[in-house]
Specification:
This is Lipoprotein, putative. It is built from four helices and 42 strands. By secondary structure, it is mainly beta. It has a domain of about 200 residues: Immunoglobulin-like (Sandwich). The protein has a 24-stranded antiparallel β-barrel. A hairpin with a 6-residue loop joins β14 and β15.
Length: about 750
């Protein structure tokens, strides 16, 4: 009881600190005053605008231009060396943007692929906050080769997985490059009563390795920070676009063969439909019938030498719009809902019959999200039908802060009969604080799970507070996880500890304390941009007994050069009390469940990424549990601008443990070939040789975007045992999807 009281007192101190800092920060100058300084008007046009990059229509000549872009990075003082001029128009269906980007050298174009490396090429982007609440917005960008990028900006973070249908064209000249964009109002969520949107424009100037913005954004904050937008003033707010319905039918077919099961050649075919229906101009309904959630993209393999599962991001389009409403709860140690768990059982896909997803604003300051997916059962005890339901609500308060609530429910069905004693539920709330000027952020959260026979000790709660200014960043966090907190549709790897002797997974509750800080020294010129020093300390204890579980602390030094190259030096010290014997590398004996202390040092260097030929390399050495670990590797990239990228990444880990605990020599080699025949036709091949997973994977993908957001994919995959180079399985898949606006 004394330990629980101590934890409670510590949490109260964190709450008091966050509250006191919030009062101090709230009284500071409001950065949304940017909208009083940076204003641009948009006017209606009756003329037809042709998206060809020429901007020669009379309508463009009569508009007000946003000029005098300011430096954003590596310094935020003064006007940008490479200037930009932006103009805006609209009609009943489209928002039009033109940008003239002045240059004195040939632009750097890293790729022609959509959503790939926009910030590493010469480029232009527009950031929009239609609700003007400084919390959620849209980002659209084009590089100098014409490659599009779009994403969502939520709470200071960018989600680039979101896709939308829009149009653009680029024209290159000797002293400038010009981009013309047309964004359908159907692709945006906005209110018909708001006549002032938040807006900013971001320019990438790779000749100088610099970024500029139209509305000033201080250097500690990202250029996409919605707290520093200027004002887009409408002569009349845009009306809701009638008939805002999108249908996305798909067809898929293919051949596969599993050589391990010797099942012979299998043929597959399927079809389904996704739909997007605008209930209002800022509330959207997504529907899916018989969806195909297989990935034509492939997850990048990594060597995992931790005791816990790795996190891989969601890529399925159905789950992406307003994704933050569902995905931003919890922390990196536990998320009550993780959409990649939907449609999976024990890591294997299960058929999904249908799904519905309602998300967006119901008032200017309130957003909701409702998700419901039904999977198919096969009348077997281990494969019942499942209904997976999530409901969230977000109420904005105090400018950029919010109160958020979530309910997650997994319910089993035997046919149409609900099984009353087969469910898992999680409910909870969060208060998220973000000061108006962005220098203080934090949250307080609490969740409880409900699972048959595990109703007690099923809480998790905690919070964090972080302060930052131009040079300094510091934060503290505390969280507690009880052993019976079970989130079957969430991500809770730290709770789950594998007992290799008894072949079982045991949940062990813990408390976690973390503190961190960094200090940046900015250069006044020359070859160095800045130096950054960073330190952190993390402590885990058993939440019941208070006994020590694990500790890690570290120090980083980063040196960033003007030409975009960088050098990083780091050191780390770790202590761990293993709860169970550990099968780390497959030795003759398991590592015993006892106390270990180990440390390592690491050096990493990456060369100038703007050059056609670039390299990166790292080396790490130190003790590891009761032995040693040497890691080294890197990558080589050759760019044939703008049509080709050829990369090889190599990672080698050599682990030597004493006696019969074993040694391991783990190799991961990942060559990649990317060829862009145009902005709409691509061929990408990944090869991944991973001795830890004993797998050699070939994934070769051809993509033809024959119309905006409509694709033909031809994908060949091949998997072999890495050691014996014996085939495991092969597959050839053809998928056709079509985006139809009604």
């Amino acid at each position: 009881m004394k330990k629980q009281l101590s934890n409670y007192q510590r949490l109260c101190l964190l709450v008091c600190w966050l509250f006191a800092c919030s009062l101090t920060s709230y009284a500071k100058p409001n950065p949304t005053r940017n909208q009083q300084t940076y204003k641009v008007n948009i006017v209606r046009t009756a003329a037809k605008i042709k998206i060809d990059g020429n901007i020669n229509e009379e309508a463009w000549k009569s508009t007000h231009a946003a000029r005098n872009f300011l430096r954003k990075w590596p310094t935020d003082k003064g006007q940008a060396e490479a200037q930009t001029e932006v103009r805006l128009l609209y009609d009943d269906h489209f928002l039009y943007i033109s940008a003239v980007c002045f240059i004195d050298k040939k632009p750097v174009i890293q790729t022609l692929r959509r959503d790939a490396g926009h910030w590493n090429s010469d480029g232009f982007a527009i950031l929009m906050d239609p609700m003007n609440q400084h919390s959620n917005g849209f980002l659209f960008g084009v590089n100098a080769g014409g490659a599009q990028m779009e994403g969502l900006t939520v709470g200071g973070q960018n989600s680039m997985e979101w896709d939308a249908k829009w149009y653009s064209r680029v024209k290159l000249h000797h002293d400038r490059w010009v981009v013309e964009m047309a964004i359908p109002f159907k692709s945006l969520r906005y209110s018909e009563t708001i006549d002032k949107w938040g807006i900013n424009f971001i320019r990438n100037d790779m000749q100088r390795n610099a970024y500029s913005t139209w509305a000033h954004v201080p250097i500690p904050y990202d250029g996409t920070d919605l707290g520093y937008t200027g004002a887009l003033r409408w002569d009349s707010p845009p009306k809701k676009v009638k008939g805002n319905v999108v249908l996305i039918p798909y067809m898929i077919g293919g051949l596969s063969e599993n050589f391990e099961e010797t099942s012979g050649l299998e043929r597959r075919g399927n079809a389904g439909l996704d739909a997007k229906i605008a209930i209002t101009s800022n509330l959207n309904l997504d529907l899916t019938i018989n969806p195909d959630f297989s990935q034509v993209d492939v997850d990048q393999q990594v060597t995992n030498l931790s005791r816990f599962s790795l996190f891989f991001p969601e890529r399925r389009n159905f789950f992406l719009e307003n994704r933050d409403l569902f995905a931003n709860f919890g922390s990196g140690r536990a998320q009550p809902f993780f959409s990649r768990k939907v449609g999976l059982k024990n890591g294997e896909p299960v058929p999904i019959l249908a799904g519905a997803r309602l998300s967006g604003n119901i008032t200017k300051s309130m957003r909701v999200g409702i998700l419901d997916v039904q999977t198919q059962g096969n009348n077997e005890a281990d494969s019942l039908g499942q209904n997976q339901f999530v409901a969230t609500v977000q109420q904005q308060i105090w400018g950029r802060s919010s109160i958020n609530a979530i309910l997650v429910n997994r319910q089993a069905f035997d046919g149409t009969n609900m099984l009353a004693n087969d469910f898992n539920r999680v409910a909870g709330m969060e208060f998220r604080y973000l000061s108006n000027n962005g220098d203080l952020r934090g949250n307080l959260r609490g969740f409880k799970s409900f699972t048959p026979d595990h109703l007690d000790r099923s809480l998790t709660y905690g919070g964090f507070a972080e302060y930052r200014n131009r040079k300094f960043n510091a934060g503290v966090s505390y969280e507690q996880f009880q052993e019976n907190f079970i989130a079957e549709l969430g991500f809770t790897p730290r709770l789950q500890n594998y007992d290799v002797v008894n072949d079982r997974t045991v949940n062990i509750g813990f408390t976690r304390w973390a503190v961190w800080g960094s200090y940046t020294v900015f250069s006044k010129g020359g070859v160095i941009n800045n130096h950054r020093f960073n330190h952190w300390h993390v402590l885990y204890n058993n939440d019941v007994t208070g006994q020590f579980q694990e500790r890690s602390m570290g120090f980083n030094y980063d040196l960033n050069f003007t030409n975009s190259s960088n050098l990083s030096l780091s050191a780390r010290y770790s202590e761990v009390q293993l709860p169970f014997d550990l099968d780390l590398i497959g030795g003759d004996e398991y590592l015993p469940a006892t106390f270990y202390a180990y440390n390592w040092g690491r050096a990493e260097y990456n060369s100038d990424s703007r050059q056609p030929f670039s390299v990166g390399t790292f080396v790490q050495y130190g003790t590891f549990y009761n032995g040693t670990r040497l890691s080294y590797g890197g990558g080589i990239n050759f760019r044939a601008q703008p049509w080709g990228n050829f990369r090889v990444n190599v990672s080698q880990n050599y682990i030597e443990l004493p006696g019969s605990y074993g040694t391991a020599n783990l190799t991961l080699v990942s060559p990649t070939i990317e060829i862009s025949f145009s902005n709409t036709m691509f061929w990408t091949t990944f090869l991944q040789y991973n001795t830890q997973a004993d797998n050699f994977n070939i994934n070769s993908r051809f993509q033809w975007r024959f119309r905006p957001m409509s694709d033909l994919f031809i994908v060949y995959t091949d998997n072999y045992f890495a050691e014996a180079f014996k085939v495991k399985n092969r597959a050839l898949v053809i998928k056709l999807s079509y985006w139809l606006n009604l």
